[in-house]
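User: Could you write out the 3D structure of this protein bound to adenosine monophosphate? I've included everything you need below.
Assistant: Certainly. Input first, then the structure.
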Amino acid sequence: MSFQSLGLSEALLKAISKKGYTTPSPIQEKAIPPVLEGHDVLASAQTGTGKTAGFTLPLLHILSENPKAKYRPIRALILTPTRELAAQVYANVREYSEFLNLRSAVIFGGVNQKPQVATLRQGIDVLVATPGRLLDLQNQGLLSLKRVEIFVLDEADRMLDMGFLRDIEKVIKSMPEKRQNLMFSATFSKDIKKLAHGILNHPVQVEATPENTTVDAITQKVYRVAKGSKTGLIIKLISEGNWKQVLVFTRTKHGANKLCEKMDKAGITAAAIHGNKSQGARTKALAGFKSGRIRVLVATDIAARGLDIPLLPHVINFEIPNIPEDYVHRIGRTGRAGANGVALSLVSADETSFLRAIEKLIEMKLPIEIMEGFEPDPNASTAPIKQGQGRRNRNSRNSNSRSSNKSGGASNRNSNSNSRRPKRNSDRRN
Ligand code: AMP
């Protein structure tokens, strides 16, 4: 299968070849034809499968086939959960539309709105946005979605995790009813299926990897280790393996900062990326990581979404997530676009139940290893880590957040209980 045979225009083929892509990835092969035919599409695809091009290429094709000559209303809206993902998708839109007469823009929070508004005023065809800033500018009367023809909801599962359900509903109400809808999600919970049902009209369903399973190209391994020995073990693994580009996940922002300091002390350049960092600091850390100046990027779950780091060889879960789907997202950062990757998880006794939940979701037992000198503590309790420890502000934050009743309510309800429903440990909006 070639890009030519998918029916994309010459201008797009030129941009694709400039990017260096020779063959479409499985999700591109499956998603591009139905989108070009005007169908709604529900796609199961993780980051790293080439999903961005999967929706961007046919979207640009459709828009350029029917140009609106006089002025440029927003004709396509791509909604993403995080700033980083928005920036990344926008960069792709720019690259793929290089030889087309289409204009695009990106808007997200955390930065001054003025330059964004100035760009919108010039008229743009494709808007990439995060929900908060989009609704904000819309409420100020600075943009209109009344002429949207194609709506893309990217990383829909993460949108719900972050409590954006209400925002999505508001955005949908402000668009014309007749439009083409594309929805991408790595995981498919009941809530996602419900959302899809509400948005999509007789969708064609496409799948790059089986639901909720991890990519074959990723070697996964668990190190059982005493909690207090994790830092020593991770430093040993990175130094002795001489790994040059490692993405590390921690549960908390504080944990991310602390780990970075220890890595730096051990002579491993590291930077943290999380919600307490300014947009500038995040961009700088990511650029440093991509260029190889920084060996280790330590991230919390939400901050890591949307990071586009091609061919990332190593992902380490310094702590495994209490939401099993997050594990799938995390390790989806490696083994990208056909390359091999290694995903390691450092698991202490109190994470045992989280590990079981992950294994249940991915339907496989993860191989376990014990490193000499970093053995697990045989006397440690396997009771799960208390949710919300040392995080006094979280509940007040959640109640102020734009989260839906469901997620906000559940968080508050569960904070002092042993409910089985997993609760996100990291702040919802980092
Ligand atoms: P995505 O899943 O959209 O984040 O894409 C993952 C990575 O794969 C990005 O670095 C893309 O530039 C790259 N990519 C996307 N499509 C292709 C393709 N057909 N061939 C090779 N690389 C691709």
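The two ends are 40 Å apart (CA to CA).
User: Perfect, thank you.
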